[in-house]
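dude i think i finally got it to work??
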Amino acid sequence: MGFFFETLIGGLMAGMLYSLVALGFVLIFKASGVFNFAQGAMVLFAALAMARLSVWIPECLGIDGRVLGNTLAFVVAGALMFVVAWLVERFVLRHLVNQEGATLLMATLGVAYVLEGVGTSVFGTEVYKIDVGMPKDPVLILEGSFEGGLLINKEDFVAALVAALLVALLALFFQKTSTGRALRAVADDHQAAQSIGIPLGRIWVIVWFVAGLVALVAGIIWGSKLGVQFSLATVALRALPVVILGGLTSVPGAIIGGLIIGVGEKLSEVYLGPYIGGGIEIWFSYQLALVFLLFRPQGLFGEKIIDRV
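look at this
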């Protein structure tokens, strides 16, 4: 029973990280009605910026302190993500108002390639390390309840807490603020939103900036765990089944979908892997997403689209 709970907790913590990446997709879709293929590139760009700035800034300013250096690097990296958001709105989205979804989709592909190219050109292509002081050693908990206790990875636990806090803040942002409500109106109809006084350009800058901050936090967490390298851009692929399960328009759906995927991957690998072969953790989530696409394409919490002709 103890081993089962260890696996379950590990799956929940991994699921929160998936939810964090999936939030970037949900944010952009809620504001523009298009799937953002640039989210993985945003994670890579933000992680590269954080990794290099955390080294360059202390060297340039003569700072001897990891906390202060990382704090300044985070602020500057966040400012860079705002610049990215402004550039995307100014040179891409502004010229595509009320265009077909396929057009916006191709635009996000172009943004992805530009971010990958600029990021690797400016910050380099080596494998970098992000050290934000996250604990690496595992810890035993509930030794009195389970024989031998439960072994928990402290780094995964801290990362899951950070992800959960950010997810909760974003959920409140969408539900309780006028900007969050404006985002939903913009997603429904660009021109109609403009006609009632919603500043479309400002809304797009805000949502891409928020998605950039989400990508920055996700990049820091994944970079701390795995190192910052070009393959980090593919981390968004792990979040695709999450948004399919939860729904592209639902922030709570991203949370629930991430937890389902995280737990499903861990439990299937441990309990089904020995019978049907290893590596099930890699493809389990995509098979589950395929089932949802066949029987409930809008996801658990997504809005069902009805077109009248």
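The first strand starts at residue 138 and ends at 141.
im so relieved honestly
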